[in-house]
Design a protein that fits this description.
Layout: E1 2-5, H1 11-21, E2 27-30, E3 44-50, H2 53-56, H3 62-70, E4 71-84, H4 94-106, H5 120-128, E5 133-140, H6 144-152, H7 160-166, E6 172-181
Parallel strand pairs: 1-2, 3-4
Antiparallel strand pairs: 4-6, 5-6
Protein backbone atom coordinates (compact mmCIF):
# COMPACT_ATOMS: atom_id res chain seq x y z
CA UNK A 1 0.00 0.00 0.00
CA UNK A 2 1.04 3.58 -0.61
CA UNK A 3 0.01 6.89 0.88
CA UNK A 4 -0.12 10.21 -0.94
CA UNK A 5 -0.05 13.32 1.25
CA UNK A 6 -1.19 16.53 -0.31
CA UNK A 7 -2.03 19.88 1.22
CA UNK A 8 -3.09 21.53 -2.06
CA UNK A 9 -5.49 18.91 -3.37
CA UNK A 10 -8.23 17.42 -1.21
CA UNK A 11 -8.12 13.74 -0.31
CA UNK A 12 -11.44 13.29 -2.15
CA UNK A 13 -10.09 14.83 -5.37
CA UNK A 14 -6.97 12.70 -5.12
CA UNK A 15 -9.08 9.59 -4.56
CA UNK A 16 -10.93 10.36 -7.80
CA UNK A 17 -7.59 10.68 -9.61
CA UNK A 18 -6.45 7.32 -8.15
CA UNK A 19 -9.72 5.68 -9.19
CA UNK A 20 -9.32 7.05 -12.72
CA UNK A 21 -5.78 5.66 -12.80
CA UNK A 22 -6.95 2.27 -11.50
CA UNK A 23 -4.82 2.37 -8.34
CA UNK A 24 -7.37 3.33 -5.64
CA UNK A 25 -7.05 -0.12 -4.03
CA UNK A 26 -3.30 0.47 -3.50
CA UNK A 27 -2.96 4.21 -2.77
CA UNK A 28 -4.45 6.09 0.19
CA UNK A 29 -5.05 9.83 -0.23
CA UNK A 30 -4.21 11.88 2.87
CA UNK A 31 -4.75 15.61 3.33
CA UNK A 32 -2.07 16.61 5.85
CA UNK A 33 0.41 19.34 6.66
CA UNK A 34 4.02 18.18 6.38
CA UNK A 35 4.82 18.82 10.05
CA UNK A 36 1.85 16.77 11.26
CA UNK A 37 1.94 13.56 9.22
CA UNK A 38 -0.22 10.81 10.74
CA UNK A 39 2.24 7.90 10.58
CA UNK A 40 4.16 5.76 13.05
CA UNK A 41 7.97 5.94 13.08
CA UNK A 42 9.67 3.51 10.67
CA UNK A 43 6.35 2.90 8.88
CA UNK A 44 7.42 3.20 5.25
CA UNK A 45 9.99 1.50 3.05
CA UNK A 46 10.39 4.76 1.12
CA UNK A 47 9.33 8.42 1.19
CA UNK A 48 9.25 10.53 -1.97
CA UNK A 49 8.47 14.21 -2.31
CA UNK A 50 7.89 15.84 -5.69
CA UNK A 51 7.79 19.65 -5.96
CA UNK A 52 7.05 20.35 -2.31
CA UNK A 53 9.99 19.44 -0.06
CA UNK A 54 11.58 22.88 -0.43
CA UNK A 55 8.55 24.49 1.28
CA UNK A 56 9.17 22.72 4.59
CA UNK A 57 12.45 20.84 4.25
CA UNK A 58 14.78 23.84 4.50
CA UNK A 59 14.01 23.92 8.23
CA UNK A 60 17.08 22.44 9.97
CA UNK A 61 14.91 20.19 12.14
CA UNK A 62 12.48 18.85 9.52
CA UNK A 63 14.56 16.04 8.05
CA UNK A 64 15.91 14.55 11.30
CA UNK A 65 12.79 15.15 13.41
CA UNK A 66 10.00 14.39 10.91
CA UNK A 67 10.90 13.05 7.47
CA UNK A 68 13.67 10.64 8.47
CA UNK A 69 11.44 9.08 11.10
CA UNK A 70 8.89 8.00 8.47
CA UNK A 71 11.21 5.46 6.84
CA UNK A 72 12.59 2.16 8.14
CA UNK A 73 16.37 1.73 8.40
CA UNK A 74 17.61 0.65 4.97
CA UNK A 75 14.65 2.44 3.38
CA UNK A 76 14.92 5.09 0.72
CA UNK A 77 14.20 8.79 0.40
CA UNK A 78 13.79 10.79 -2.76
CA UNK A 79 13.01 14.40 -3.52
CA UNK A 80 12.69 16.49 -6.64
CA UNK A 81 12.32 20.21 -6.06
CA UNK A 82 13.01 23.49 -7.81
CA UNK A 83 16.28 25.15 -6.99
CA UNK A 84 19.29 26.90 -8.39
CA UNK A 85 22.50 25.70 -10.01
CA UNK A 86 24.48 27.45 -7.27
CA UNK A 87 23.99 29.39 -4.04
CA UNK A 88 23.97 33.18 -4.30
CA UNK A 89 26.38 34.48 -1.68
CA UNK A 90 25.59 38.12 -2.49
CA UNK A 91 21.86 37.83 -3.13
CA UNK A 92 19.73 36.67 -6.03
CA UNK A 93 20.48 37.89 -9.57
CA UNK A 94 18.73 41.12 -10.61
CA UNK A 95 16.16 39.44 -12.86
CA UNK A 96 15.06 37.10 -10.08
CA UNK A 97 14.95 39.97 -7.55
CA UNK A 98 12.71 41.98 -9.89
CA UNK A 99 10.42 38.96 -10.26
CA UNK A 100 10.17 38.52 -6.47
CA UNK A 101 9.40 42.22 -6.00
CA UNK A 102 6.78 42.13 -8.77
CA UNK A 103 5.09 39.10 -7.18
CA UNK A 104 5.04 40.82 -3.80
CA UNK A 105 3.48 43.95 -5.33
CA UNK A 106 0.73 41.85 -6.90
CA UNK A 107 0.23 40.00 -3.60
CA UNK A 108 -0.18 36.80 -5.56
CA UNK A 109 1.99 34.21 -7.14
CA UNK A 110 4.93 32.66 -5.42
CA UNK A 111 7.88 35.04 -5.52
CA UNK A 112 8.74 34.57 -1.85
CA UNK A 113 8.80 30.80 -2.31
CA UNK A 114 12.00 31.21 -4.30
CA UNK A 115 13.73 32.06 -1.07
CA UNK A 116 13.46 28.32 -0.33
CA UNK A 117 15.27 27.38 -3.56
CA UNK A 118 18.78 25.99 -3.07
CA UNK A 119 21.46 24.18 -5.04
CA UNK A 120 22.04 20.43 -5.18
CA UNK A 121 25.21 20.91 -3.11
CA UNK A 122 23.21 22.76 -0.43
CA UNK A 123 20.60 19.99 -0.25
CA UNK A 124 23.30 17.31 -0.04
CA UNK A 125 24.99 19.10 2.90
CA UNK A 126 21.61 19.72 4.52
CA UNK A 127 20.84 15.96 4.75
CA UNK A 128 24.44 14.72 5.04
CA UNK A 129 25.14 16.67 8.21
CA UNK A 130 22.37 14.80 10.06
CA UNK A 131 24.36 11.56 9.80
CA UNK A 132 21.09 9.68 9.28
CA UNK A 133 21.44 8.79 5.61
CA UNK A 134 23.85 7.86 2.87
CA UNK A 135 23.22 10.12 -0.14
CA UNK A 136 23.11 7.93 -3.25
CA UNK A 137 22.40 10.67 -5.80
CA UNK A 138 22.16 14.45 -5.82
CA UNK A 139 22.19 16.44 -9.05
CA UNK A 140 20.56 19.02 -11.29
CA UNK A 141 18.14 17.34 -13.66
CA UNK A 142 19.25 18.06 -17.24
CA UNK A 143 17.19 20.22 -19.62
CA UNK A 144 15.28 22.00 -16.87
CA UNK A 145 13.61 24.46 -19.24
CA UNK A 146 12.27 21.69 -21.50
CA UNK A 147 10.69 20.12 -18.41
CA UNK A 148 9.40 23.32 -16.80
CA UNK A 149 8.19 25.32 -19.81
CA UNK A 150 5.13 23.17 -20.68
CA UNK A 151 3.90 23.74 -17.12
CA UNK A 152 4.87 27.42 -17.24
CA UNK A 153 2.78 27.94 -20.33
CA UNK A 154 -0.29 26.23 -18.83
CA UNK A 155 -3.24 27.88 -17.12
CA UNK A 156 -2.22 26.77 -13.62
CA UNK A 157 1.37 28.00 -13.83
CA UNK A 158 1.08 30.81 -11.23
CA UNK A 159 3.65 33.02 -12.95
CA UNK A 160 6.13 30.24 -13.80
CA UNK A 161 6.51 31.68 -17.30
CA UNK A 162 7.48 35.10 -15.85
CA UNK A 163 9.90 33.39 -13.49
CA UNK A 164 11.66 31.47 -16.26
CA UNK A 165 11.95 34.66 -18.31
CA UNK A 166 13.44 36.45 -15.27
CA UNK A 167 16.13 33.76 -15.08
CA UNK A 168 18.39 35.47 -17.62
CA UNK A 169 21.54 33.75 -16.31
CA UNK A 170 20.17 30.17 -16.45
CA UNK A 171 20.42 29.67 -12.71
CA UNK A 172 17.13 27.76 -12.32
CA UNK A 173 17.41 24.05 -11.66
CA UNK A 174 15.34 21.06 -10.73
CA UNK A 175 17.18 19.15 -8.01
CA UNK A 176 16.94 15.37 -7.63
CA UNK A 177 18.26 13.71 -4.50
CA UNK A 178 18.05 10.14 -3.20
CA UNK A 179 19.31 8.62 0.04
CA UNK A 180 19.22 5.43 2.10
CA UNK A 181 18.47 5.54 5.82
CA UNK A 182 21.28 4.22 8.00
CA UNK A 183 20.78 1.89 10.91
CA UNK A 184 19.06 -1.34 11.78
CA UNK A 185 15.41 -1.65 12.77
CA UNK A 186 15.24 -2.69 16.42
Amino acid sequence: MHSVNDLWISATDNLRRFEDAGVADRVFPIYAEAHALPYANNFFDAAVSIDSYHYYGTDETYFPCVYAKLVKPGGQFGIVCPGYTKEFEKGHPEGILRFIAHQQEKEEGWGEDMLTFHSAAWWKRHWDKTGLVDITACYDIPNVRQIWEPWANGEQSMSDDEFLKADTENDVALIAMAAIKKGVLS
